[in-house]
Amino acid sequence: MHYLVLSDIHANYTALEAALDAAKGRWERPVCLGDIVGYGPDPNEVIDRVRALGATVIRGNHDKAASGVADAEDFNPVARAAATWTREQLRPDNLAFLQQLPPGPIEADGLALVHGALHDEDEYVFAPAQALNGLLESPSPVTCFGHTHFQGGFSFHHDKLEVIQLRPEPGASFAALRVEPGTRYLLNPGSIGQPRDGDPRAAFAIADMDHKVIEFWRVPYDIEAVQQRMLQAGLPEPLILRLAYGR
Ligand SMILES: [Fe+2]
To answer: Could you say which of 74, 129, 225, 230 is the most buried, measured as most Cβ atoms within 10 Å of its Cβ?
Structure first.
């Protein structure tokens, strides 16, 4: 089974389409680790596309804020403004879709899916110390997480925790990671719609669980077109500018 692993699409339809184009014919089952909406200009278009894919989806903190499942009190003012704008745009059926999304972790045939940390969907996993619980306690050897918008992750083998940072070579679309027996993994496919790891290209992963290979993809997309729509929508300027830098 090949999984298409999407995360943190953040209402960026252009980036999502570029990713789906690049991944065409390479996967059988799509999964999404949350934050379908928030920040970006295309909430309904992105939710429609994700629903049409038939993806297994868990919720992210922005899905909760935009749909009223949680308040946006802990959001910074820019994120809160975007959440409010998003809520105003949502069609009733898409609002209902966001509201019924389950929290992680859930298991999908050998993969565990979470938005943030294993035991707290809103917690960020940036550092090895934050990854340890997830690595040790996840129901699956391979767990996919999002929330940080950083592609990469962590592995644990024989009491040794390692940071995994993979980037496609110049000219290549993906970098591959071999899943070793007896090793546990916490892997972030990166963010489709708002990467923050310094590479502005859309990020996602394809997990081939039969051959135990995970591909970490980066795909360019028309960032300026998205920035233009954000400008027209009146979304906050810092959110518009950061897309170009991937920070
Ligand atoms: Fe996010």
So the answer is: 230
C-alpha 38 to ligand 1 mean position (Å)? 8
**% of the chain beyond a pLDDT of 90:** 94
Cβ proximity of 225 and 17 under 8 Å: no
Would you place residue 110 in the very low, low, confident or very high pLDDT band (cuts 50, 70, 90)? confident
Question: Could you read off the pLDDT of 132-165 as tens digits, one per residue?
Answer: 999 999 999 999 999 999 999 999 999 999 999 8
- Residue 150 C-alpha to ligand 1 middle, in angstroms? 10
| CATH number of the structural domain 2-245 | 3.60.21.10
Domains of the chain by residue range: 2-245
> Please, what sign has the CA dihedral across residues 224, 228, 233, 237?
positive
Q: Measure the CA–CA gap between 107 and 134, rounded to whole angstroms.
A: 14
Tens-digit pLDDT profile for residues 211-243: 999 999 999 999 999 999 999 999 999 999 999
CA of 74 to the centre of ligand 1 (A): 14
